Amino acid sequence: MQAFDYIAAKTVDEAIALLAAKGAQARVLAGGTDLIVQLREGRRRLELVVDIKTIPDVNVLSYNAQSGLQLGAAVPCYKIYGDATIAAAYPGLMDAFTLVGGTQIQGRASVGGNLCNSSPAADTIPTLIAHRATCVIAGPNGRREVPVDQFCTAPGRNVLANGEFLVALRIPAPAKNSGGRYLRFIPRNEMDIAVVGVGTTVTLSDDKATFTAARIALGAVAATPLLAEAAAAALVGQPVSDATIAAAEAAAQSIASPISDMRGTIPQRRHLVGVLTRRTIQGAIARARGEAVSHG
User: Degrees (nearest 5) of the Cα angle 20, 22, 23?
Assistant: First the structure.
């Protein structure tokens, strides 16, 4: 591993100043489960690593039934799904948060870090998109907010400019009669990277017979995670039925533009988009109706 300077920032302003001074040669350390590996393998070279874990703003984890969830960028995964109230309110998020590495990794890895790594196959991003999450970004020009579906710009790249870093994620409170689900397909347990991942949220009418709102997002089938707007539109206002779900499934498949690689082929990925879209819609419906759906 190359030599680099390490500074543990104590405030948001200090972190901004350090990052701005070094530009592309500086990176934030939140959990470090991606960054340290990249540095050790020589895939990334830096002059400065700025540890933000001691900044109070990035460690906030709070939930309110009206205002929703505030999730600091450095909060490790185990703390989120370990909070029974939050886990019960957002089971569709927990589907993904419990998949980020093994037990040891989840003691360090953060959802914010997983997002900032900006992999097209990241498990947390499709379900964050489906849950309408917003990024709170701090930088030299103050703070700004960006929807998660607009955050990633290319594999490993995102909207963060020089001196900026992700402070927190804001996720709206679940609507009445709503449910969420995330599922992925992996080639084998030893290759823990999604071939396809799909995150879905739905809201049902009071009689649970009609879709009144929906969000569907796809991972690992394009250069960035995708918001499948046409797939969600195929559900809204329609009855809960196999035909409606099939229409959404087809719409999701139509926007996928996957590649063939060691994990899967283009035809396989397109097929999986349909299968996982259908299954996540079905799981989200079940949760919206108050039925128990286990993670995984």
Answer: 65
Q: What is the model's pLDDT at position 190? A: 59
Compare 188 and 171 and report the one with higher pLDDT: 171
230's tokens: 């046409």
Poorest-confidence range of 66-70, 71-75, 108-112, 268-272? 108-112
Extract the tokens encoding 268.
């396989």
Q: Please check whether the domain covering 1-174 is classified as CATH 2.120.10.70.
A: no
Confidence at 44, pLDDT banded by 50, 70, 90 = confident
Q: pLDDT tens digits, residue range 84-138?
A: 999 999 999 999 999 887 777 877 789 999 999 999 999 999 999 999 999 999 9
Q: How far out from the chain centre does Cα 280 lie?
A: 15
Contacts of range 248-251, beta carbons closer than 8 Å, 24 or more positions apart: 248/214, 248/216, 248/277, 248/278, 248/281, 249/274, 249/277, 249/278, 249/281, 250/274
> H-helix or E-strand containing 183?
strand 178-185
Instruction: Return the pLDDT at 294.
Output: 87
List of residues 6+ apart from 22 with CB closer than 8 A: 47, 48
**Contact criterion met (CB below 8 Å) for 117 and 103:** no
pTM of the predicted model over 0.85: yes
Q: Find the angle CA(27)-CA(30)-CA(33) to the nearest 5 degrees.
A: 90
Cα–Cα distances (Å) from 76 to 72, 121, 141, in that order, read 9, 19, 28
Residues present in the chain in total: 296
Query: CATH classification of 178-288 is 3.30.390.50, yes or no?
Result: yes
How many C-alpha atoms does 173 have within 13 Å on its Cβ side? 10
* Cα dihedral across residues 267, 268, 273, 275: positive or negative: positive
Higher per-residue pLDDT: 296 or 278? 278
Q: Which of 169, 130, 82 is nearest to 283 (CA)?
A: 130
Q: Are 28 and 55 in contact (CB under 8 A)?
A: no
- Please give the helix or strand (H or E) that residue 108 lies within, else none: none
